[in-house]
Amino acid sequence: MEILQKDDGYKGAFYVEQGNQVLAEMTYVWAGTDRIIIDHTDVNAVLKGKGIGKQMVTKAVGFAREKGIKIVPLCPFARSVFDKVKEFKDVL
After folding, report:
1. Cα 53 to Cα 25: distance, rounded to the nearest angstrom
2. Residue range 9-66, pLDDT digits in tens
3. What is the three-class DSSP state of 86?
4. Distance from C-alpha of 68 to C-alpha of 4, rounded to nearest angstrom
5. Which pTM value belongs to this model?
6. In this structure, are residues 78 and 26 in contact, taking their beta carbons and an 8 Å threshold?
7. How many Å separate Cα 35 from the centre of its chain?
8. Helix residue ranges per DSSP H, the chain
9. Secondary structure string (H, E, C) spanning 33-56
10. Could you give all domains of the chain from N- to C-terminal order, each with its CATH number?
Protein backbone atom coordinates (compact mmCIF):
# COMPACT_ATOMS: atom_id res chain seq x y z
CA MET A 1 0.00 0.00 0.00
CA GLU A 2 1.46 3.34 -1.03
CA ILE A 3 1.83 6.12 1.53
CA LEU A 4 1.18 9.48 -0.17
CA GLN A 5 2.07 12.95 1.08
CA LYS A 6 0.58 16.40 0.72
CA ASP A 7 2.16 19.58 2.08
CA ASP A 8 1.23 23.22 1.56
CA GLY A 9 4.15 24.71 3.51
CA TYR A 10 2.04 25.25 6.65
CA LYS A 11 0.54 21.83 7.23
CA GLY A 12 0.53 18.44 5.60
CA ALA A 13 -0.30 14.78 5.86
CA PHE A 14 0.89 11.31 5.04
CA TYR A 15 -2.06 9.25 3.91
CA VAL A 16 -3.43 6.19 2.14
CA GLU A 17 -6.12 6.69 -0.46
CA GLN A 18 -8.21 4.03 -2.14
CA GLY A 19 -10.94 4.75 -4.64
CA ASN A 20 -10.84 8.51 -3.91
CA GLN A 21 -11.37 7.82 -0.20
CA VAL A 22 -8.73 8.53 2.45
CA LEU A 23 -8.48 5.37 4.56
CA ALA A 24 -5.55 6.42 6.76
CA GLU A 25 -4.05 9.80 7.56
CA MET A 26 -1.35 11.22 9.81
CA THR A 27 -1.42 15.02 9.91
CA TYR A 28 1.29 17.49 10.82
CA VAL A 29 1.93 21.21 11.04
CA TRP A 30 5.16 23.06 10.39
CA ALA A 31 6.80 24.74 13.39
CA GLY A 32 9.19 27.15 11.72
CA THR A 33 11.31 25.84 8.87
CA ASP A 34 13.16 23.06 10.67
CA ARG A 35 10.47 21.05 12.47
CA ILE A 36 7.09 19.39 11.96
CA ILE A 37 4.63 18.48 14.69
CA ILE A 38 2.67 15.26 14.12
CA ASP A 39 -0.69 16.02 15.71
CA HIS A 40 -3.11 13.27 14.65
CA THR A 41 -3.22 9.75 13.22
CA ASP A 42 -6.34 7.98 12.04
CA VAL A 43 -6.65 4.58 10.34
CA ASN A 44 -9.97 3.29 8.99
CA ALA A 45 -11.18 0.00 10.47
CA VAL A 46 -10.63 -1.82 7.16
CA LEU A 47 -6.88 -1.20 7.49
CA LYS A 48 -6.49 -1.74 11.25
CA GLY A 49 -3.82 -4.24 12.20
CA LYS A 50 -1.98 -3.98 8.89
CA GLY A 51 0.83 -1.72 10.14
CA ILE A 52 -0.32 1.29 8.12
CA GLY A 53 0.13 3.71 11.05
CA LYS A 54 3.75 2.65 11.54
CA GLN A 55 4.33 2.90 7.77
CA MET A 56 3.12 6.51 7.84
CA VAL A 57 5.48 7.31 10.74
CA THR A 58 8.31 5.64 8.82
CA LYS A 59 7.50 7.80 5.78
CA ALA A 60 7.55 10.92 8.00
CA VAL A 61 10.96 9.91 9.37
CA GLY A 62 12.28 9.52 5.82
CA PHE A 63 10.87 12.93 4.92
CA ALA A 64 12.52 14.50 7.99
CA ARG A 65 15.88 12.93 7.19
CA GLU A 66 15.69 14.02 3.56
CA LYS A 67 14.86 17.62 4.54
CA GLY A 68 17.21 17.73 7.56
CA ILE A 69 14.38 18.61 9.94
CA LYS A 70 13.10 17.31 13.28
CA ILE A 71 9.76 15.78 14.30
CA VAL A 72 7.74 16.53 17.44
CA PRO A 73 5.29 13.61 17.88
CA LEU A 74 2.39 15.11 19.87
CA CYS A 75 0.02 12.42 18.60
CA PRO A 76 -0.04 9.54 21.13
CA PHE A 77 0.18 6.91 18.39
CA ALA A 78 3.18 8.53 16.70
CA ARG A 79 4.83 9.01 20.10
CA SER A 80 4.39 5.30 20.84
CA VAL A 81 6.11 4.36 17.58
CA PHE A 82 9.03 6.68 18.34
CA ASP A 83 9.28 5.15 21.81
CA LYS A 84 9.49 1.64 20.34
CA VAL A 85 11.77 2.23 17.33
CA LYS A 86 15.12 3.52 18.55
CA GLU A 87 16.36 3.97 14.95
CA PHE A 88 13.95 6.92 14.61
CA LYS A 89 15.44 8.90 17.55
CA ASP A 90 17.75 10.89 15.25
CA VAL A 91 14.83 12.98 13.99
CA LEU A 92 13.40 13.84 17.41
Report:
1. 8
2. 999 999 999 999 999 999 999 999 999 999 999 999 999 999 999 999 999 999 999 9
3. helix
4. 20
5. 0.96
6. yes
7. 13
8. 52-67, 76-84
9. CCEEEEEEEEECHHHCCCCHHHHH
10. 4-91 (3.40.630.30)
